[in-house]
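Running log. JK asked me to keep both predictions on one page so they can be read side by side. First protein, sequence followed by its tokens:
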Amino acid sequence: MNLNFLSQLKLEHENLGIAIGNQWQRGNGPKIKSTSPVNGNTIGEVQLATEEQYHQVVDQARKDFLEWRNIPAPKRGEIVRQIGEAFRQNKEALGHLVSYEMGKSLQEGLGEVQEMIDIADFAVGLSRQLHGLTMHSERPQHRMYEQYHPLGVVGIISAFNFPVAVWSWNAFLAWVCGDVCIWKPSEKTPLSAIACQKIVQEVLQANHAPAAVSCLVVGDASVGKAMANDKHVPLVSATGSTKMGKSVGAAVGARLGKSLLELGGNNAIIITPEADLEMSIIGALFGAVGTCGQRCTSTRRLIVHESIIETVAEKLKNAYAQLKIGNPLDTENHVGPLIDKEAVNNYLNAIAKAKEEGAEVIIDGKVLEGERYSSGCYVQPAIFKVENEYKIVQEETFAPILYLISYNSLEEAIAKQNDVPQGLSSAIMTLNMREAEQFLSTNGSDCGIANVNIGTSGAEIGGAFGGEKETGGGRESGSDAWKIYMRRQTNTMNYGSNLPLAQGIEFNI
């Protein structure tokens, strides 16, 4: 296998995992290996940071923030524009690394880097639009307005399934807002983060920007816990499991900080009798097996009208039979591996629990064997006919398992769609305008994302991304998501010669 992309990205066998701009240092914690789920080979090693080293990074970030916030926002945007260009130049190499380290298909790896480029473009435009409002005062010769100021140090905790894109959603917006960022990536995909830091540092250095605008701390859960409890980090953006998010949210909330949480999804597509079935099958297929079911927006449940559920099941069986599973760097393959053996065990346990609760097997799951599956992380995408109330169906399993659920009325379908603890993404497949509008109405989907005639998986950077309930309530990327990275201030200007007081109170002086 050609691994030239590692040298192109200046990665080594032993990599430094702590960076303040271009100032790199070795962690004092235990050493970890980045192992590719593609073939089980070790890509590189990183020495983890300690809590003490994390706090040293925070100290420098706080100092450099004082300089960065005074650089005009359009000039900060220009630096982010150059960062976007640097990722354009490194798209092929970085896309290959993401695919090899995480296990997603090469097309998806390249697509993830493209998301970084796109959010850079969005952030550049945003750098000239960080505007507030003006309003009329009830007092004569007074003017009122509101403005937004940078928060300070933003902590970013990212997950393995999108090892680079979600960091960029946060960092690029935070940077144009005037914040500095400290990134704690997943220990399962540290090399992708190190590669990004190397690319960014060169741009910062060329522009003589403060070093700690971009910081990297590869550490274990103790570093994430330290960040969540750190009063010097006013905003912590965390992507991961609901369990992790509850811990981060509680810690940040206890110190009255701000948290942006992007957590679990249990996403459903409703297919009505008036749907375009060909379009529906394509949407369900990609949503269920893309990234081997390891997206927070992956389609987990397919809620199908009872009159067409057998037809849909048969069409899915035919579609799944055409899937090519194997090395994700081979563009002929549709599905790559799960991230590691732990994920494989979770997949097997979920299948066992579904069967225990009475699931009907449409396509059974199994671990694939043979030379091309030597890492032990390749599995068969599975489909089971179930009831929405099954305990395992109520949980999020990060694996290519699709649950087929029957419904009678659209109201019942929407109720089943909403009757899970998570609330990230949802979709309806229908050519009936009334059904579509009902799904998007107040009485429709309770998710942060609700789509018509496209699947649950994926999102455009122009819209705010995030969900409700146990998904955490956070919003990243587009729309006005930038406001979470800033503090809001209301200003009143008195340009008159009198000082009117509230409730008509007067002082004779």
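And the second, directly underneath as requested:
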Amino acid sequence: MVPALQEPKTHSTSTVTSMEDEEDPIETSHSRLRNIYTPISKYLHHPAALPSLALSILYFTVLNFGAQMITYLLTPGYTPLHISSIRGISVLFEISATWLAPLVMSRVGPIRGGLWFVNWQLLCVAGAVSAFWFLENPMMAAGGLILGVILSRIGLWGFDLCVQIIIQDEVEPAYRGSFSAMEASVQNTFELGSYAMTVVFARPAEFKYPVFMSAVAVFVAAVLFAGFVRKRRGHLVHTPACFGGMDVKRRAEEEGYLRLVS
């Protein structure tokens, strides 16, 4: 289906072994440094870097029903059966985002849709963290955290889909592999940071600190994406569109997404 993938690979027949043996060690070192620096620099200076970074920062979290959060939920008295049921409900909300996100993008485009989804996630996480910090009953505090995290998954998955559409549209085909590799590296770095949080704050009574820092990460991601939207569109809220003053179909065409879902 993709003609470019049908083209045969070209292999160089020249022998470079003897040349490599004669290379200057200093020049070789500089070359290796350039090989590391160049993709990082290109990634950070690319127009799609902000949404990609915003998505990557969301990996700095313990609010994802992963090992860290599950381990904590066992502390206030939730049983493995309770946790399995909760995770099942969370998955249903996540799957619903795969239906909701294309619907939203077809109407307002991926840029504005991404702004809506990340703000929804921020709102849900803020409510979850507030309940967890201020409710005195451990079971109720954990319950508030669970509810907020479940609802936030719609925003997370919807935002992820919107950002990936933006990246696929804006990153040059020849550079997509390098860009995606850099994005995955940044995501893995933030994910390692989330595990480091629970290494530092290892006691159940200290779990509130990783929870708070996870909420800060969502806030930073929302700010970064809002900056991207402001830079790209010149505004964050389009008043006529909010009150139906602009034709819905024309808005989608301006975002360049209508052709993808038609």
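Observation for JK regarding the second prediction: The first helix runs from residue 17 to 21.
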